[in-house]
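Structure in, sequence out. Go:
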């Protein structure tokens, strides 16, 4: 059985609290409903009951609707910063993959590794970038690069850390960057997002936005990666803000409704031509 990802483990751990909050909210609203019903039936309390009903409706419905409208407006702003260009065929490039997905199973990460075949793809786990100032260029040779390869379709991914000499040699060949995140669960903003906020190609990027998928050319002559000056061919962002859901209640929130951007273009660059089921595209969209 596959080990759960950190995001999945966090989700499982919060389910009990969500259920507890839902039950408590149901009981509170039930008590309020019964109280208001009694007040509306009794003539001497009817006026106060109507005021109470209005207040409950404003809080339980009005406040969440305002929150949802605000989140929807922020999402439109995020979508305006996304880039859906025409990335080149990855088979023609030497790729560096940055991902937090150490399991790399049934996800965009798996698609990129599978596309590289037996030759493998250069990989840097996102955790290795924590604490780095990526607003400045970082040399490839200074990163803990590994080679991940999947020689057979559906087979186990083979992983090997590169030596210092191999990293130096790879630095002169790497000419394309792909960045993915967890399937279904976007990662929290990290040093990459901090660097992209100063990138003029992504104007106005906020602290609550994270990279879901990125494809960008690199200059092998430089032997480094500079996120602050990167010019993405494709950039798909996720808004992490959650709006209040109806009715107003503790832990009752809803996502902003992020939709994957540019995945058809990404699939054209990564997926095999003979993918009639669309499984490759489906994995990219997770």
């Amino acid at each position: 059985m596959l080990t759960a990802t950190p995001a999945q483990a966090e989700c499982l751990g919060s389910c009990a609290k969500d259920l507890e909050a839902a039950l408590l909210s149901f009981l509170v609203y039930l008590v309020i409903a019964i109280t208001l019903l009694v007040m509306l039936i009794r003539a001497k309390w009817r006026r106060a009951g109507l005021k109470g009903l209005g207040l409950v409706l404003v809080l339980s419905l009005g406040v969440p609707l305002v929150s949802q409208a605000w989140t929807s407006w922020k999402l439109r702003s995020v979508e305006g910063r996304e880039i859906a260009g025409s990335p080149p065929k990855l088979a023609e490039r030497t790729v560096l993959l940055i991902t937090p997905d150490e399991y790399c199973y049934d996800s965009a990460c798996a698609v990129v590794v599978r596309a590289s075949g037996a030759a493998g793809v250069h990989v840097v786990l996102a955790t290795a970038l924590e604490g780095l100032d990526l607003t400045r260029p970082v040399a490839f040779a200074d990163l803990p690069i590994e080679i991940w390869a999947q020689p057979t379709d559906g087979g186990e991914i083979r992983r090997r850390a590169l030596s210092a000499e191999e990293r130096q040699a790879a630095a002169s060949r790497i000419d394309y960057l792909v960045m993915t995140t967890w399937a279904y669960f976007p990662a929290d903003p990290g040093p990459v997002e901090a660097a992209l906020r100063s990138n003029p190609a992504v104007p106005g990027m906020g602290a609550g936005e994270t990279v879901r998928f990125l494809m960008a050319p690199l200059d092998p002559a430089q032997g480094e990666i500079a996120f602050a000056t990167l010019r993405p061919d494709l950039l798909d962002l996720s808004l992490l803000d959650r709006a209040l859901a109806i009715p107003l209640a503790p832990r009752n929130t809803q996502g902003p409704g992020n939709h994957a951007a540019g995945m058809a273009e990404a699939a054209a660059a990564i997926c095999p031509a003979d993918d009639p089921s669309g499984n490759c595209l489906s994995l990219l969209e997770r």
